[in-house]
Protein backbone atom coordinates (compact mmCIF):
# COMPACT_ATOMS: atom_id res chain seq x y z
CA UNK A 1 0.00 0.00 0.00
CA UNK A 2 2.85 2.40 0.82
CA UNK A 3 4.51 1.75 -2.54
CA UNK A 4 1.20 2.24 -4.33
CA UNK A 5 0.22 5.37 -2.37
CA UNK A 6 1.49 7.91 -5.00
CA UNK A 7 -0.62 6.26 -7.68
CA UNK A 8 -3.61 6.06 -5.33
CA UNK A 9 -3.19 9.76 -4.50
CA UNK A 10 -3.02 10.60 -8.21
CA UNK A 11 -6.16 8.62 -8.97
CA UNK A 12 -8.27 10.06 -6.18
CA UNK A 13 -7.09 13.61 -6.94
CA UNK A 14 -8.30 13.59 -10.55
CA UNK A 15 -11.30 15.81 -11.29
CA UNK A 16 -14.51 13.86 -11.12
CA UNK A 17 -16.57 13.60 -14.23
CA UNK A 18 -20.08 14.85 -13.54
CA UNK A 19 -22.71 12.17 -13.92
CA UNK A 20 -25.45 13.44 -16.18
CA UNK A 21 -28.77 11.63 -16.21
CA UNK A 22 -31.29 12.51 -18.86
CA UNK A 23 -34.98 12.33 -18.01
CA UNK A 24 -37.30 11.31 -20.78
CA UNK A 25 -40.76 12.80 -21.29
CA UNK A 26 -42.53 10.15 -19.20
CA UNK A 27 -40.13 10.64 -16.29
CA UNK A 28 -40.78 14.38 -16.35
CA UNK A 29 -44.55 13.89 -16.38
CA UNK A 30 -44.27 11.45 -13.48
CA UNK A 31 -42.25 13.93 -11.41
CA UNK A 32 -44.59 16.79 -12.26
CA UNK A 33 -47.54 14.73 -10.99
CA UNK A 34 -45.71 14.11 -7.72
CA UNK A 35 -44.91 17.83 -7.44
CA UNK A 36 -48.57 18.77 -7.98
CA UNK A 37 -49.77 16.27 -5.39
CA UNK A 38 -47.15 17.55 -2.94
CA UNK A 39 -48.24 21.13 -3.47
CA UNK A 40 -51.82 20.07 -2.66
CA UNK A 41 -50.80 19.63 0.99
CA UNK A 42 -49.62 23.24 1.32
CA UNK A 43 -52.47 24.51 -0.87
CA UNK A 44 -55.01 22.83 1.40
CA UNK A 45 -53.59 23.28 4.89
CA UNK A 46 -51.39 26.42 4.79
CA UNK A 47 -54.35 28.78 4.81
CA UNK A 48 -55.93 31.55 6.89
CA UNK A 49 -56.94 29.21 9.74
CA UNK A 50 -53.23 28.53 10.35
CA UNK A 51 -51.93 32.04 9.59
CA UNK A 52 -50.85 30.79 6.13
CA UNK A 53 -48.20 28.59 7.74
CA UNK A 54 -48.03 24.81 7.28
CA UNK A 55 -49.17 22.42 10.02
CA UNK A 56 -46.58 19.79 10.89
CA UNK A 57 -48.60 16.86 9.53
CA UNK A 58 -52.00 15.60 8.48
CA UNK A 59 -53.16 12.19 9.71
CA UNK A 60 -55.80 10.22 7.83
CA UNK A 61 -56.10 6.99 9.82
CA UNK A 62 -57.13 5.68 12.26
CA UNK A 63 -58.85 9.07 12.58
CA UNK A 64 -58.47 12.30 10.66
CA UNK A 65 -56.42 14.93 12.47
CA UNK A 66 -54.34 18.01 11.62
CA UNK A 67 -51.32 18.80 13.81
CA UNK A 68 -51.68 22.57 14.23
CA UNK A 69 -48.05 23.08 15.18
CA UNK A 70 -45.04 23.94 13.08
CA UNK A 71 -41.33 24.70 13.05
CA UNK A 72 -38.92 26.94 11.11
CA UNK A 73 -38.02 23.95 8.91
CA UNK A 74 -41.68 23.53 7.94
CA UNK A 75 -41.92 27.23 7.13
CA UNK A 76 -38.83 26.90 4.96
CA UNK A 77 -40.42 23.97 3.14
CA UNK A 78 -43.49 26.12 2.54
CA UNK A 79 -41.31 28.82 0.96
CA UNK A 80 -39.51 26.35 -1.32
CA UNK A 81 -42.73 24.53 -2.24
CA UNK A 82 -44.49 27.80 -3.07
CA UNK A 83 -41.56 28.88 -5.21
CA UNK A 84 -41.54 25.52 -6.98
CA UNK A 85 -45.32 25.62 -7.49
CA UNK A 86 -44.97 29.01 -9.18
CA UNK A 87 -42.00 27.86 -11.26
CA UNK A 88 -43.87 24.77 -12.49
CA UNK A 89 -47.03 26.73 -13.23
CA UNK A 90 -49.18 25.19 -10.50
CA UNK A 91 -49.99 28.66 -9.13
CA UNK A 92 -49.86 32.11 -10.66
CA UNK A 93 -47.68 35.04 -9.67
CA UNK A 94 -50.49 36.74 -7.73
CA UNK A 95 -51.21 33.69 -5.58
CA UNK A 96 -47.50 33.14 -4.99
CA UNK A 97 -47.02 36.75 -3.86
CA UNK A 98 -50.14 36.68 -1.67
CA UNK A 99 -49.23 33.45 0.08
CA UNK A 100 -45.66 34.55 0.75
CA UNK A 101 -46.75 37.99 1.99
CA UNK A 102 -49.13 36.47 4.53
CA UNK A 103 -46.68 33.75 5.59
CA UNK A 104 -43.75 36.13 6.08
CA UNK A 105 -45.97 38.56 7.95
CA UNK A 106 -46.98 35.75 10.31
CA UNK A 107 -43.33 34.77 10.73
CA UNK A 108 -42.52 38.35 11.74
CA UNK A 109 -45.11 38.09 14.52
CA UNK A 110 -43.48 34.97 15.95
CA UNK A 111 -41.49 34.99 19.18
CA UNK A 112 -37.75 35.06 18.50
CA UNK A 113 -34.43 35.12 20.32
CA UNK A 114 -31.38 36.88 18.86
CA UNK A 115 -33.02 36.79 15.45
CA UNK A 116 -33.95 33.10 15.65
CA UNK A 117 -37.60 32.01 15.54
CA UNK A 118 -38.34 29.73 18.50
CA UNK A 119 -38.74 26.22 17.27
CA UNK A 120 -42.22 24.82 17.84
CA UNK A 121 -45.32 26.99 17.80
CA UNK A 122 -49.08 26.81 17.47
CA UNK A 123 -50.05 27.70 13.90
CA UNK A 124 -53.44 29.07 15.00
CA UNK A 125 -52.20 31.38 17.76
CA UNK A 126 -48.50 31.71 16.76
CA UNK A 127 -47.60 31.13 20.43
CA UNK A 128 -44.45 29.13 21.21
CA UNK A 129 -44.91 25.64 22.60
CA UNK A 130 -43.13 24.34 25.68
CA UNK A 131 -40.30 23.73 26.06
CA UNK A 132 -39.31 27.01 24.37
CA UNK A 133 -35.97 26.75 22.61
CA UNK A 134 -33.97 27.68 19.51
CA UNK A 135 -32.87 24.94 17.12
CA UNK A 136 -29.80 25.87 15.11
CA UNK A 137 -30.68 23.13 12.60
CA UNK A 138 -34.18 24.49 12.03
CA UNK A 139 -32.93 28.06 11.91
CA UNK A 140 -30.37 27.05 9.30
CA UNK A 141 -33.03 25.28 7.23
CA UNK A 142 -35.22 28.36 7.32
CA UNK A 143 -32.33 30.68 6.48
CA UNK A 144 -31.24 28.81 3.33
CA UNK A 145 -34.88 28.50 2.25
CA UNK A 146 -35.34 32.26 2.57
CA UNK A 147 -32.18 32.86 0.52
CA UNK A 148 -33.61 30.65 -2.24
CA UNK A 149 -36.98 32.40 -1.94
CA UNK A 150 -35.31 35.80 -2.27
CA UNK A 151 -33.59 34.81 -5.51
CA UNK A 152 -36.80 33.27 -6.80
CA UNK A 153 -38.76 36.45 -6.07
CA UNK A 154 -36.21 38.50 -8.00
CA UNK A 155 -36.59 36.13 -10.95
CA UNK A 156 -40.37 36.36 -10.71
CA UNK A 157 -40.19 40.15 -10.69
CA UNK A 158 -38.22 40.11 -13.93
CA UNK A 159 -40.61 37.70 -15.63
CA UNK A 160 -44.04 38.16 -17.21
CA UNK A 161 -47.18 38.62 -15.14
CA UNK A 162 -48.63 35.49 -16.74
CA UNK A 163 -46.03 32.80 -17.27
CA UNK A 164 -46.32 30.29 -20.11
CA UNK A 165 -45.58 27.64 -17.45
CA UNK A 166 -49.19 28.03 -16.26
CA UNK A 167 -50.27 25.97 -19.25
CA UNK A 168 -47.98 23.17 -18.08
CA UNK A 169 -49.52 23.46 -14.62
CA UNK A 170 -53.01 23.20 -16.07
CA UNK A 171 -51.94 20.15 -18.06
CA UNK A 172 -50.70 18.50 -14.85
CA UNK A 173 -54.08 19.01 -13.21
CA UNK A 174 -55.95 17.65 -16.22
CA UNK A 175 -53.74 14.54 -16.26
CA UNK A 176 -54.40 13.99 -12.56
CA UNK A 177 -58.11 14.41 -13.24
CA UNK A 178 -57.81 11.82 -15.99
CA UNK A 179 -56.08 9.43 -13.57
CA UNK A 180 -58.82 9.93 -10.98
CA UNK A 181 -61.55 9.41 -13.58
CA UNK A 182 -60.13 6.01 -14.50
CA UNK A 183 -62.31 4.48 -11.79
CA UNK A 184 -65.51 5.62 -13.52
CA UNK A 185 -67.60 3.21 -15.58
CA UNK A 186 -66.35 2.90 -19.15
CA UNK A 187 -69.42 4.58 -20.64
CA UNK A 188 -69.05 7.61 -18.36
CA UNK A 189 -65.34 8.17 -18.75
CA UNK A 190 -65.09 7.72 -22.54
CA UNK A 191 -66.50 11.15 -23.40
CA UNK A 192 -64.59 12.79 -20.55
CA UNK A 193 -61.31 11.30 -21.75
CA UNK A 194 -61.91 12.54 -25.27
CA UNK A 195 -62.52 16.04 -23.99
CA UNK A 196 -59.48 16.02 -21.71
CA UNK A 197 -57.22 14.66 -24.44
CA UNK A 198 -58.40 17.35 -26.84
CA UNK A 199 -57.63 20.09 -24.31
CA UNK A 200 -54.19 18.60 -23.52
CA UNK A 201 -53.32 18.56 -27.21
CA UNK A 202 -54.39 22.20 -27.50
CA UNK A 203 -52.34 23.27 -24.47
CA UNK A 204 -49.10 22.16 -26.08
CA UNK A 205 -49.67 24.70 -28.86
CA UNK A 206 -50.65 27.65 -26.67
CA UNK A 207 -47.41 28.43 -24.84
CA UNK A 208 -45.84 30.17 -27.80
CA UNK A 209 -48.99 32.06 -28.81
CA UNK A 210 -49.87 34.55 -26.04
CA UNK A 211 -52.23 36.43 -28.33
CA UNK A 212 -54.60 33.45 -28.33
CA UNK A 213 -54.64 32.76 -24.57
CA UNK A 214 -57.83 34.65 -23.74
CA UNK A 215 -59.78 33.10 -26.61
CA UNK A 216 -58.48 29.65 -25.66
CA UNK A 217 -59.61 30.01 -22.04
CA UNK A 218 -63.05 31.17 -23.18
CA UNK A 219 -63.21 28.18 -25.51
CA UNK A 220 -62.29 25.72 -22.78
CA UNK A 221 -64.92 27.20 -20.47
CA UNK A 222 -67.74 27.10 -23.00
CA UNK A 223 -66.74 24.07 -25.06
What order do the helices and strands come in, and which of them pair?
Elements: H1 5-13, H2 25-45, E1 57-59, E2 65-67, E3 69-70, H3 72-88, H4 93-108, E4 112-113, E5 116-117, E6 121-122, H5 136-158, H6 165-181, H7 186-206, H8 213-222
Antiparallel strand pairs: 1-2, 3-6, 4-5
Helix pairs in contact: 2-3, 2-6, 3-4, 3-5, 6-7
Could you explain the architecture of this structure?
The structure is a single chain. The chain has eight helices and six strands, in the order H-H-E-E-E-H-H-E-E-E-H-H-H-H. By secondary structure, the protein is mainly α. The strands form three sheets. It has a two-stranded antiparallel sheet with strand order 1-2. A hairpin with a 5-residue loop joins strand 1 and strand 2. Helix 2 crosses helix 6 (165-181), helix 3 (72-88) runs antiparallel to helix 4 (93-108) and helix 6 (165-181) runs antiparallel to helix 7. The N and C termini lie far apart (75 Å).
Amino acid sequence: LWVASPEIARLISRPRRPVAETLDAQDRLYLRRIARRTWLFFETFAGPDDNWLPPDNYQISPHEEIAHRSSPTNVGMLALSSLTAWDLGHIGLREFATRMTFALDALDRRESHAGHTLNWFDTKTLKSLDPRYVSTVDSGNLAVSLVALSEGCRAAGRGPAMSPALWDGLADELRLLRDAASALPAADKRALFRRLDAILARLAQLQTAPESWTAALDGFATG
